[in-house]
Specification:
53% helix, single chain, globular, two-stranded antiparallel sheet, mainly alpha
């Protein structure tokens, strides 16, 4: 999939655990884990907005587009 999820990178930069982010965002650990591992098929803008507020970042800090041939 050409969309890369860098949620784990932003969490590390903010020194925030998955449990802490889950509590602050209001998502279950399993749903947040699916997003973090890049297995999610979609994300609501409201969820993305809340994650960005909590992590004090931009959507582009979390989501990245790479062409299929660039992915190794």
């Amino acid at each position: 999939m050409p969309i890369i999820v860098n949620l784990d990178v932003m969490m590390a930069k903010r020194k925030m655990s998955l449990n802490e982010l889950s509590e602050k965002v209001g998502l279950t650990l399993s749903n947040l884990s699916i997003l973090k591992t890049g297995k999610a098929k979609a994300i609501r803008f409201s969820t993305l907005e809340t994650i960005c507020k909590v992590l004090d970042c931009q959507p582009a800090d979390i989501l990245e587009y790479k062409k299929e041939e660039d992915i190794s």
